[in-house]
Amino acid sequence: MKVLVTGGSGFIGSHIVEKLLDLGVAVRVLDIDGRADARVEVFEGDVADPDLTAAAVSGVDAVCHQAARVGLGVDFGDVRGYVASNDTGTAILLDALWRRSFQGRLVLAGSMVIYGDGRSRCPVHAIVTPGPRRPDDLDTGNFEALCPTPGCGRMVTWAPVAEDTPPDPRNIYAATKLHQEHLCTVYGRETGATVVCLRYHNVYGPRMPRDTPYAGVASIFRSALEVGRPPQVFEDGCQTRDFVHVRDVARANVLALTSASVASGAYNIASGDPHTVGDMATALAGAFGTGMTPVINGRWRLGDVRHIVASPARAAAELGFRAEIGFAEGMAEFAAAPLRV
Predict the structure, then answer these.
(1) Quick one: which H or E segment has residue 238?
(2) Are 49 and 89 in contact (CB under 8 A)?
(3) Which residues of 16-53 are buried (b: 16+ CB within 10 A; e: fewer)?
(4) Distance CA 159, CA 120 (A)
(5) Rounded Cα–Cα distance for residues 102 and 89 (Å)
(6) Which of 84, 339, 81, 79 is nearest to 220 (CA)?
(7) What is the distance between the alpha carbons of residues 219 and 242, in angstroms, rounded to a whole number?
(8) For the residues of 35-92, what is the DSSP string, one character each?
(9) If 0-12 CB within 10 Å is exposed, 13-18 middle and 19+ buried, where does residue 338 land?
(10) For the purposes of burial, counting CB atoms within 10 Å of the CB of 308, is it exposed (0-12), middle (13-18) or buried (19 or more)?
(11) pLDDT confidence bin for 73, thresholds 50/70/90
(12) pLDDT at residue 118, as a whole number
């Protein structure tokens, strides 16, 4: 078996490559960064290069598409870059697969950001889908989402998001990740290929990129601690997320690529053990061992959602995936782990 991993030199991709190699799988990497394990065949360049991508897909049995521009971006001015990397890059990959009549397994790195605020529970109206929060409320420190039922407006609490929850992307990155899913799903229907979308929740761990406007919150906190600054926590720190370790995410990809049988569709990849962003900042600061404590600064970003927590039930039942690395263990390791430049 030969697997192409796009973005295979990156944060998540490099861990997937390692696990595939450990199983004796032949691996080919297509990445703009040519750094990779010496046992890997490397195609150095951008997935948006049609000739390079056509060469990279030749002769492979499965594709693991990790290459993407990540993070929420700075503002709408990032739109062209996100669309070029995520939408156009995926289209070029799929076109290359189409031209060689590929019917193998295609695994896509999806994201929980497509859900927006997902599912919430109103004390009166049960399960609801809150709309975007209003800037006026955020400015005055009213961070919780509200019931959208006319005449209600009560604060809601989070409920687990299943894969059939209607998408509600709230920022450019989310919109492009949803479009990637749509493109890959159409490819699967047209060709009969098995297309598996793994919707990652908040991934963290060794080799995470250093602090940039596009890095995840765990990386931003870790980078601050490394230079002697306390983590700056937005809102009131009570935003709820599911933090899942990168080695667990890599294992989910390997299951999706190599299991004897897997159904096409979307799967939440999460730990099943949600925590607040404040919990994460506190755990990371404590594990770092400097005595610093996080600063709750009350700032906010319009594209952020209040709570997003997954139901991992489908991945457990159909992929056999259950996270193995606990929150405290993972944060303690991450505090000492090297970051990527």
Answers:
(1) none
(2) no
(3) bbbbbeeeebebbbbbbbeebeeebebbebbbbbeebb
(4) 5
(5) 17
(6) 339
(7) 15
(8) ---TTSEEEES-TT-HHHHHHHHTT-SEEEE-----S--SSGGGHHHHIIIIIIHHHH
(9) exposed
(10) buried
(11) low
(12) 86
In this structure, is the dihedral angle defined by the CA atoms of residues 74, 76, 80 and 86, taken in order, positive or negative? positive
At residue 76, the pLDDT reads 85
Q: What are phi and psi of 41, to 5 degrees?
A: -85, 125
Contact (CB, 8 A) for 216 and 71: yes
Instruction: Work out the number of other CB atoms within 10 angstroms of the CB of residue 76.
Output: 10
Quote the CA–CA distance of 334 and 278 in Å, as a whole number.
16
SS3 322: coil
- The answer to whether 64 touches 12, Cβ cutoff 8 Å, is no
Residue 199 tokens, joined: 């919707």
Q: Which residue has the tokens 């098995």?
A: 194
Look up residue 315 and give its two tokens: 């991945």
Give the chain's count of helices (H) and strands (E).
11, 16
Q: Which residue has the tokens 């062209």?
A: 80
Q: What is the pLDDT of residue 214?
A: 54
Decide: helix, strand or coil at residue 240: strand
DSSP string computed for 249-316 = HHHHHHHHHHSS---SEEEEE--S--EEHHHHHHHHHHHHTS----EE-----TT--SB--B--HHII
Summarize pLDDT for 214-246 with one digit per residue, the tens. Answer: 568 899 999 999 999 999 999 999 999 999 999
pTM of the predicted protein model: 0.95
Question: Residue 199 forms beta bridges with which residues?
Answer: 110, 268
Q: What CA–CA distance (Å, rounded) separates 8 from 319? A: 22
Q: Contact 83/128 with Cβ under 8 angstroms?
A: no
Token pair, residue 245, equals 């370790």
